[in-house]
Amino acid sequence: MLLDNEILRRSWPTRRAFDLGCGNGTTCDMLSKRGFDVTGVDTSVSGVEHAKAAFPRVTCEVGSAYEDLAFRFGTFDLAVSLEVIEHCMEPRVFAKTFFNLIAPGGVGFLSTPYHGYLKNAALALSGRMDRHFTVLSDGGHVKFFSIKTLGILLREVGARRSF
C-alpha cells in the first residue's frame, strides 16, 4: 500500500494525522495503529457513529470539507483523503480545505478512482459505461479525474508536487 510506504519512509515530528472523509473510521484506525494521533471528519452521521464505536482511540467527528477545518482542528503532519474528492460538487473548495490541513513540511495523501483515456475507452467498448458511472444512484461519484486534471487542481490550491 502506497500510504504505508510513505509512512515508513518518513520521520514524523509529531505524528498527528487527519482523515478528510473518514467514513467508518477504518483508515483512522490504521493510522492510529502506526502511531499517529488521528482526527477524522465525515459528513455521514452514521459513518462517524460507527467509527466512534469501533475505534474509540481515534477522534471522528461530523464535519464538511466546505468548512474551515484547519481553524477547527489545526494542521497535521499527515493529511489523507482516500476516494472522497470524486463525491464533491466543489472540488476546488475540497482541495483547498485539504491543503490547508497540512502543516508546513507535512504530507498530503489524496486518492481518487483513475479515469484516463484508456480506461474510459475500455468501459465504452465493453458496454459497461452506465454500470460503472451509476448515474441513477443517489449520492455517489459526481466528478471524474485523470492524473492530469487532479494534478492541475492540486497545483491551483498550492501543492508543490502531485502524482
Keywords:
alpha/beta; Rossmann fold; 40% helix; 5 strands; 20% strand; 5-stranded parallel beta sheet; 163 residues
What would your notes on this structure say?
This protein is an alpha/beta fold and 163 residues long. The chain has a single domain, classed as 3-Layer(aba) Sandwich (Rossmann fold). Helices cover 40% and strands 20% of the residues. Strands 3-2-1-4-5 form a five-stranded parallel beta sheet, with helices on both faces. Helix 5 links the parallel strand 4 (76-82) and strand 5 (102-111). The chain starts with a helix and ends in a 7-residue tail after the last helix.
Task: Please give a quick description of this structure.
With about 160 residues, the protein is α/β, with parallel strands linked by helices. The chain has helices at about 1-10, 25-35, 45-55, 70-75, 90-100, 115-125, 130-135, 145-155; strands spanning about 15-20, 35-40, 60, 75-80, 100-110. Strands 3-2-1-4-5 form a five-stranded parallel beta sheet, sandwiched between helices.
